[in-house]
Amino acid sequence: MFSTLSTWLEHRTGIMTFVRAMLLEGVPGGAKWRYVWGSCLAFVFSIQLITGLFLTTAYSPSSSQAWSSVHFIQYKMDFGWLIRGLHHFGSQTMMVLIALHMLQVVIAGAQLPPREVNWWLGIGLLSVTFGLSLTGYLLPWDQKGYWATRVATNISSNIPVIGNDIKQLAVGGPDYGNHTLTRFYALHVAILPLSLIVLLIAHIVIFRRHGVTSAENEQGLVPDAPPEASLLTQHKEEAEHEPFWPRQAFYDMVACMAVFSVMMGLVLYGFAHEVEQPKGPDGAEPGWYEKIARAGVHGKGAELDAAADRDTANYPARPEWYFLFLFQLLKYFKGDLVLVGTVHIPNGVMVLLTILPFFGYGAMRKFGHFFGMFVVMSLLIVVGILTLFALRDDQPDGILFGLLKSSDENTLKLARQHQENMRDAEKLAKRACQLAMDGTPVEGGHLLIRNDPLTTGQKLFQVKCGSCHSFTANAKDKELKLFDDWVPKDKNGKANPTASDLGDFGTKEWVRSLLEDPMRPKHFGAVKKPVRNAENEIVKGPDGKPELTNGLGTMANWRKGIDKARKKPKDPVDPILQDADFDAIAAYLEILARPRDERKDEKAIFAGQTAFDSEFNKCSDCHRVEKAKKVGKALKWEIDGGETAPDLSFYGSADWIRGMIMSPGHKDRYGKKNLMPGFRNTEGPGSELSIREFHDTNPPPDGLKETPLQHLSDVERELIIRWIRRDYRPVYGGAVIAK
Amino acid sequence: MEPETDRRSFLGFAIFGLGTIFSAIIGVPLVCYGIDPRHRKGPKSSFKAVDGIKLDEFSLNDPRQGVIRDKRDDGWIHYPNDVIGRVWVVQSGPRPDLSTPEKVAAFNTSSIVERERYLKVFTTICPHMGCSVNRDSAGGFACPCHAATFALNGDRATADNPAMRGMDTLEWKIDESDPEALRIVVAYKNFVSSIEKKEVIGEEPAA
Q: How far apart are CA A612 and CA A610, in angstroms?
């Protein structure tokens, strides 16, 4: 059956003859391990083709979607991590193999006549492979690719006369974005691979025309054969040599598998950022298949940096390692000499490589053979050294166990800065990969970081709130390794907080500590206000600066009263019982911060309420608060209490903090005692009304014409609130992105 | 057998063996990657308001169309609040007594058959090929694509109809959060088209 079918197929197509001709190609001088590199390259290229094809089925080349779609491949698609990982490391493997292949070619002298054309095709293949690497590096549209591509394309703009046009054509306009991606995508998945395939076919056909370059076959198999000589006639002439099948085929196979094992090893070792594994629909642990198929969440596969964001202060851009030598070269040619490093030397080298075969004519052949080896080996050595120098310059402790270390103080300083930037970039990348597990906003993955309370919220806090408020990190914050304690500093770098410490603000512990001693620096101890004389003028000290006194002293006076009552000779207040009351109040306020239908613990609510109203504790004298009454089974909430201090319903909740930021002097909060400026959106639609309402509801404090008001956008405000409350879900346009 | 042939066939086997192992190592993940969409589940449906239409606005056999919004995932994109579908709501019987919150709660616990005696909620997606069903001049519904026609109660209007089943009803109940203005909430779903049975597309098992 099979043989009938194959006979029929052979008769109609000649396929068997073709395969036989391919496999029985002669290898003059016999099979050798050193001939494997070309096959390995073709093998890795086919892996690139297959994995690349599969990647295109899930990739979206647009500046808002590219990163998210790659994240989806890496973390959510079955074996996406493996396919993408192989493709990523495949490109690096090709670079190494090209170096080895070239080296082997010049050692054999295979660039010399009659094989000049094949050498030139090889140089073409090298250029196309460089092009594929360069374009592929941008496609994930992550910070790494984005900033490296900016550098690469700007280098092309250095070329005299046409440079800017080349750059603008590559970038697709004056700036980087959708058009850059669509162009790079077209180059990467169609134009360059097709060119490579055409060049590769020509390369292989011409290779078969001349055969391997061994001592027995220096001049090629059929130097004088007419161009129309068919594969079959060639085959006859080759018959005296050992055929390709099976020994050379076996060597090639073993080498290809070894290369593939290295690639797989890199993929399995994993260079991606680990993220938390999402639970199944019922909160179930993932099964064995999910664990393997989505091993990207365990950091397997290739790295994915944070999404490209032009709003990045100091991204430490570096090209992929095989382009580091060009990067390093750029450092040595500054100012007017920049063209030497970017254009003259690289293109000069390409020209030199191109003319290498010409040194093989006639009597020059021996010299040409030596010269070819000399050029390529020197080139590889120089590239290697430049790469090592580039790595060395970025490592303050040097590389190769400190053997290679820069002695230049300035370089070391930059290296330290670079490592610090790298660490920051890594943190953001990990954070972005984690956040995108819940999906990304349609505007693009960069918003995940821009609207991330943990990273951006923290920065905003430092800029907008941090000149007065401190923020002491707790143990859990430190575990995240994303921030340290924040303390406002004056011009001389001395700690100078003038408002409360908002670390743990509004928690039960915070309230309890405040009741213990309101004048701790954490609470009102740091709150300062200028001293005023009888004419309500600010009193200046001998140094010309306003004299300061403690602000918000009412709570201090309250505590003095509490302590006095405890030491009364007659009927002193029992401190143990009262402290239990304070515990109950702290617990009660924490419950009050929740939405009404989530306040469930009735025992704690009523205990806190009673303590709040107690004649010994006196909270109700000044503060009002929502109190519960039992109606049927449900709780009904009514506000009740004094009006000279802030309303403590929802104290510490996002709503309360929002009110405090937008309207700190409102009668529900600090009223005329308020010392904090308001923060509102003072730009755009509705802002005029908002400003007017702010001044209507925030009467000026004593001695001021009006309460100061500063601009803070709505999203910025929400980011700060979430950061203070350690609610790290990203904000977008007021809506939550995380589910 | 001659040693030379022996060695040749060993090498041949080794090449095919290595090739097979390699093909499996790369082939299995490629296939799994390729069929990955096969086991992506549809979103879980939960009861969502219909465009704020109040119960008072319905009258007998006067269909109203409304929009259902919910969070929606489109591959890697998460839309916090997007339109997930449209529905037709038809009052098919007299309004039950819903004058107290207790009565509303009791009505909500009655069977869906019972509730549909009052209101029926249809997805606008045609059960034939998935176009959007509109009103027709005969007083029922008609699909503009392949002329499937339906009566107001959702049944197929004629027997020679391209649709294999009537319009797909969705489960609904009354939103109890605002007793002053009663509204309905609907659990929106997508159904497999052009089969006789009503079958939900890729729904995850209920939690």
A: 5
Which residue in the set B33, B71, B205 is minimally distant from A54, CB to CB? B33
Q: Which residues of B touch A438 (CB under 8 A)?
A: 78
Question: Which two three-digit tokens encode residue A205?
Answer: 């056909």
Alpha-carbon gap, residue A287 to B92, rounded angstroms: 47
In chain B, whose CA is at the least distance from the CA of A733?
B80
Distances (CA, A) of A171 to A143, A146, A475: 16, 11, 47
Is B76 in contact with A65 (Cβ distance < 8 A)? Answer: yes
CA A307/CA A518 separation, integer angstroms: 45
- Secondary structure element (H or E) that encloses residue A426, with its range: helix A409-435
Contact across the interface for A737 and B18, Cβ inside 8 Å:
no
Q: Which residues in chain A come in under a pLDDT of 50?
A: 223-239, 738-739
CA atoms within 13 A on the CB side of A604: 14
Q: Kindly report, residue by residue over A494-541, the tens digit of the pLDDT.
A: 888 888 999 889 899 999 999 999 988 888 888 877 777 777 777 777
Task: Output the six-digit token pair for A185.
Answer: 């995508």
SS3 content of chain A, % helix, strand, coil (to 5): 60, 5, 35
Domain A28-216+238-393 classified CATH 1.20.810.10? yes
Residues from B contacting A (CB-CB < 8 Å) are 8, 11-12, 14-15, 18-19, 22, 25-26, 29-30, 32-36, 41, 44, 71, 73, 75-81, 204-205, 207
Residues making up chain B, counted from first to last? 207
Nearest of A105, A95, A82, A92 to residue A36 by alpha carbon: A105
Residue type, B151: A
Instruction: Flag whether pLDDT at B207 surpasses 60.
Output: no
pLDDT of residue A675: 84
Q: Report the pLDDT value the prediction gives residue A239, as an integer from 0 to 100.
A: 47
Q: Which of B11, B18, B78 sits opposite A737 (nearest CB)?
A: B78
A253 and B77 within 8 Å at the Cβ level: the answer is no
Helices B3-34, A36-56: axis angle to 10 degrees equals 20
What is the identity of the amino acid at A524? F
Q: Residues A380-415: pLDDT tens digits? A: 999 999 999 999 999 988 888 888 888 888 999 999
Question: How many other β-carbons are positioned within 10 Å of the β-carbon of residue A551?
Answer: 20
Question: Between these two residues, B85 and A537, which has the higher pLDDT value?
Answer: B85
pLDDT of B4: 67
* ipTM of the complex model: 0.90
Please name the amino acid found at residue B39: H
Instruction: Find out whether A27 and A221 touch, Cβ atoms under 8 Å.
Output: no
